[in-house]
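Title: Prediction job returns without error message
Component: structure pipeline
Severity: low
Priority: P3
Assignee: unassigned

Description:
Job completed but the reporter wants confirmation the result is attached to the right record. Sequence as submitted:
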Amino acid sequence: MAISEYPSKLSLPQSNPGVVTVLDYLIIKFPYVDAQIWRQRMTAGKVHWHDGTLIHAHTPFETQQRVYYYREVDNEPQIPFQDTIVFQDEHLLVAYKPHFLAVTPGGQFVNECLQTRLRRRTGLDSLQALHRLDRVTAGLVIFSINPNTRHPYHELFKTRQVHKTYQAIANVSNSDNLVGQEWEVKNRIVPSEPRFRMQVVEGNANSHSVIRCVQQSAQQALFELTPVTGRTHQLRLHMQTLGWPILHDKYYPVLEPLSTDNYATPLQLLAKEIQFIDPITQQVRHFRCQDRLALLED
């Protein structure tokens, strides 16, 4: 049994959804977690309010309060790839995340994630990710170190003042001459079934990416992707829209059966660069990871 070293937090909604206790709400909120598991966590003192006061099975529901709990999983997988710190100052830490490593706890991962790894290594328990990458995507992730300066950095991402550049590889026809071409993709992305998978539907566009081809071999092409918006799985869906789904994508265009990770075939998507004007120092920040995606040789 793996137990998270750091609590997860949940904000209770502004209006009561028709429950009496916090336990009732947690059972509704997390339908795949057995009610008895929540009772056991509460008995063991692993569920509490923001001030540390323990929450028990009969604790009344309170709107807009934060609940903290410690996630548990059986047989947590260990990801055999190393993350690296690219930059660190008093406000920010920038790290390279390898494929298959989650940014924060989720699913079957509680301690084996980038945020927990970095907290252990640096001793900075206040370290918090400012944005996310899919677990199967590699690349740069920015963390806030100082809670007192965290809000301005959150605002950068919220107001789309962070410029990101990705790389992706897709299989292409050798009859296509794609190098130098550029595509602007705008469409509407909404949840599908199952809800962790997204889909493109008719309607007003809520996603926008600029994609261009920078290199090509007989079988594959390397693309540079610039997301203007940040919808879930946006780049993966936009590559599919163009007819070139990203190599080794297990979600798109077809959802593959659930299976263990194949470390030999990672999703060929890399968060390569990130640039913004630092709201604290007013300096231009430009970070680039050394890792790169490589085409199959002709």
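Comment from assignee: result matches the submitted record. The chain has three domains: 2-73, 84-161, 163-271.
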